[in-house]
Amino acid sequence: MKIDLSTTIGPNQFSNPLINAAGVWDETALELDELVASTAGGVTTKSATLEPRSGNQRPRYADVALGSINSMGLPNQGLKYYLDYVTTHDASKPIDLSIANPNPMDNLTALQMIQDSSFQGLTELNLSCPNVIGKPQIGYDLAALKQILQQAFKLFTKPLGIKLPPYFDLQQFDAVADILNQFPLTFINTINSVGNGLLVDPASERTLIEPKGGFGGIGGAYVKPVALANVHAFRSRLKPTIKIIGTGGVRNGTDVFELILCGADAVSVGTTLMQAGPQLFTKLQDELIQLMVQKHYPSLATFRNQLKAAH
Ligand code: DHB
């Protein structure tokens, strides 16, 4: 059986739905080259600020059996570095340029720089970084969310998506979707890490990471049900022109299948990519293909958003 894994987001055609989650294996040109050379369908760049940043104090990332905690604090090489990379790399697969600025006004400057460049790929405006000391997540402030989108679309005409934090209340899904449907968004990426969790080491009685008293974004298996719920809740509320990149808790091909079943157009992988490295993408694709063959699904479209209720 011939299996077609291709998917599209805006003008970009992906040979398969797998992408690195922003912030994983994507800070330097060397790492980005490894992702471009891997079997990933697309590549995301580390969320860039206008100026380079070294990020928070170490230790700022830790793995445990069920996932990870991080409070990286946006270490990155600055937007110009990533803009240079994406406008000169070999274009063999789509690139998603991620930006995140602790000062919301800087996001508009960043968008203007991208607008004025020759970059033709997707831009992902990250409204959900939980780790900048003293700054809230814009995704949880609905007035600020609406305002930044109004300002962004006044100056930006290229394909734009946003990275959202997880929501936990059905009224929140309604209210956020109402706002998003007012804009010509190309996609949303849901979910970012579950913000401000806490992992502790009972032996040393210490937090696993140092910044912010140990609080950090939780990823990995812990967050998969939240990711499935956010993808599914938004798919049933957003207009069909807004595509969804589903992110959260992918460890195997079945997890990729489940996110697509819940409505994802593409799937990004964070914690497991951090642990396994870019060869992971081949394993995930092999497992997804095997499952699709068993279920007689020749393409992603044949099962996307087809989740049925229990009875
Ligand atoms: C960081 C973490 C995030 O979850 C994010 O969306 C952006 C940046 C960080 O701490 O670097």
UniProtKB/TrEMBL annotation:
<dbReference type="InterPro" id="IPR033886">
    <property type="entry name" value="DHOD_1A"/>
</dbReference>
<dbReference type="InterPro" id="IPR005720">
    <property type="entry name" value="Dihydroorotate_DH_cat"/>
</dbReference>
<comment type="pathway">
    <text>Pyrimidine metabolism; UMP biosynthesis via de novo pathway.</text>
</comment>
<keyword id="KW-0665">Pyrimidine biosynthesis</keyword>
<comment type="similarity">
    <text>Belongs to the dihydroorotate dehydrogenase family. Type 1 subfamily.</text>
</comment>
<dbReference type="Pfam" id="PF01180">
    <property type="entry name" value="DHO_dh"/>
</dbReference>
<dbReference type="InterPro" id="IPR012135">
    <property type="entry name" value="Dihydroorotate_DH_1_2"/>
</dbReference>
<protein>
    <recommendedName>
        <fullName>dihydroorotate oxidase (fumarate)</fullName>
        <ecNumber>1.3.98.1</ecNumber>
    </recommendedName>
</protein>
<dbReference type="GO" id="GO:0044205">
    <property type="term" value="P:'de novo' UMP biosynthetic process"/>
</dbReference>
<dbReference type="GO" id="GO:1990663">
    <property type="term" value="F:dihydroorotate dehydrogenase (fumarate) activity"/>
</dbReference>
<feature type="domain" description="Dihydroorotate dehydrogenase catalytic">
    <location>
        <begin position="5"/>
        <end position="292"/>
    </location>
</feature>
<dbReference type="GO" id="GO:0006207">
    <property type="term" value="P:'de novo' pyrimidine nucleobase biosynthetic process"/>
</dbReference>
<dbReference type="InterPro" id="IPR050074">
    <property type="entry name" value="DHO_dehydrogenase"/>
</dbReference>
<dbReference type="InterPro" id="IPR023359">
    <property type="entry name" value="Dihydro_DH_chainA_dom2"/>
</dbReference>
<dbReference type="InterPro" id="IPR013785">
    <property type="entry name" value="Aldolase_TIM"/>
</dbReference>
<keyword id="KW-0963">Cytoplasm</keyword>
<keyword id="KW-0288">FMN</keyword>
<comment type="subunit">
    <text>Homodimer.</text>
</comment>
<dbReference type="InterPro" id="IPR001295">
    <property type="entry name" value="Dihydroorotate_DH_CS"/>
</dbReference>
<keyword id="KW-0560">Oxidoreductase</keyword>
<dbReference type="GO" id="GO:0005737">
    <property type="term" value="C:cytoplasm"/>
</dbReference>
<keyword id="KW-0285">Flavoprotein</keyword>
